[in-house]
Amino acid sequence: MVINTNISALNAATQLDMNGTNLRTSLARLSSGSQITSPSDDPAGLAVSMKLSAQVARTNAAQSNVSNAISFNQTQDGYLQQVNTALSRMSELAIQSQDVTKTTTDRQLYQQEYSTLGSYINNVGSQSFNGVSLFNGTTLNVTTDGQGGTFSNLGVDLGATTYSTATGDDISTVTGAKAAVTDTVKAIQQLASDRATIGANEETLGYYNNQLGSLSNNLQAATSQITDVDVATESTNYAKENILVQSSTAMLAQANALPQSLLRLLS
């Protein structure tokens, strides 16, 4: 046994340092909730988790785009429901104006209401959603995934000739009223087609929305497997490392005391 170099104490100190590092790592994981608190913990896992996290962010952004597009279509259909009511009333007025028992004054009153409803429909055609025209007939390309894929959201044009002809009719005469019946029926048929288009848009976007939600959940689950700490397992590791640190500290104290026994040989 030598005094100048205490090998036992050096070994105990080295082991104490290792156990202390493990204890600090375990404590960091438990306090942060992540099992990767440093790039050195899992370099490959860190790289994969970063790519997955970025994909989750892009997927969530795409889902937000799709949700907004769904709201856009729902707003369109809300307006078109009222347009349908207005056109139905206009066609009714066109029939009433052909009543042989009605006077010219009566027909002028019908025309007044007909014209007012026509103006309402024309006004709806100028409405917008967050500054984007609802009814100019433009097809909007909606981003539907994190790679920039798009869906063609078909537009509706309330300024089309079918609508403008019906709203511009004059039912103050029997001849004009007959023409208005034909025009309003065509407009209602066009409206039915346009609402069907909006319905198809909504249905498809709903599928995309559900798909993106499922993808986001799965990506987050995959990221969690890599980065999130298993609290039960890590708590066990923490308890073990804590005991080892205490044990190493006690053994270092014993190792430092060993050379003192040599003093007896010198006394």
Please characterize this protein's 3D structure.
With 267 residues, the protein is mainly alpha-helical. The chain contains 7 helices and 4 strands. It folds into 2 domains: 7-33 and 229-266; 71-227, f41 fragment of flagellin, N-terminal domain, CATH 1.20.1330.10. Strand 3 and strand 4 form a beta hairpin.
Name the features:
f41 fragment of flagellin, N-terminal domain, 7 helices, two-stranded antiparallel ribbon, mainly alpha, 2 domains, 267 residues, 72% helix, 4% strand
Write the H/E string, N to C. Answer: HHHEEEEHHHH
Low-confidence parts, pLDDT < 50 over ≥5 residues? none
> What count of helical segments does DSSP give?
7
**Share of residues in strands:** under 5%
Order of the strands making up the biggest sheet: 1-2
Supply the helix-strand structural class. Answer: mainly alpha
- CATH-level-2 architecture of the largest domain: Up-down Bundle
Q: Into which percent range does the helicity of residues fall? A: over 70%
> What number of domains?
2
CATH superfamily of the largest domain: f41 fragment of flagellin, N-terminal domain
Q: Return Rg in Å.
A: 39 Å
- CATH secondary-structure class of the largest domain: Mainly Alpha
